[in-house]
Amino acid sequence: MISREDLIKIGHFNKPHGIKGELSFVFTDDSFDESECPFLVCEPDGIFVPFRIEAYRFKSDSLAFIKLKGIDNEERAKIFSNMEVYFPKQYLKPDSSSEIYSWDYFIGFTLQDAGKNTIGQILDVDETTINILFVLEYKNNELLIPVSEEIVLEIDEKKKIIQLELPDGILEL
Fold it and tell me: How far apart are CA 76 and CA 51, in angstroms?
């Protein structure tokens, strides 16, 4: 079974392109092109399902047309309209600068303060504003933690822990 922690969001399907089942795919990460992974993952009906890539071609640096195996007409392709697209983290290849492909990579990581006290687990990453925010549950409320180099002390990728030097009072907001 595929879980959200095993995936990063890399874009979404727009609408069918043509009548043979091809989909317009707006992507924020081109991991699917740089990997040996033969599938993408979508979440129809709340369950993560892999769909085998039959073919794809780039239209621009953020748009591709993708043909999924078994999706062979416009009507079947319409089911995927506006559906988010994910990629399995296990197939990610680090680039030469060791940067991570997407902020979604950190979903599932545990945040700790400088004293190594657990704050909570990252449930989502909000990239809708100029400041990237980690979204987590803290004392039964949603807490947004701004992400910046100044507050990140250490990232342990193996243990999935991020240690932060939090600004005073942020946990009381």
Answer: 13
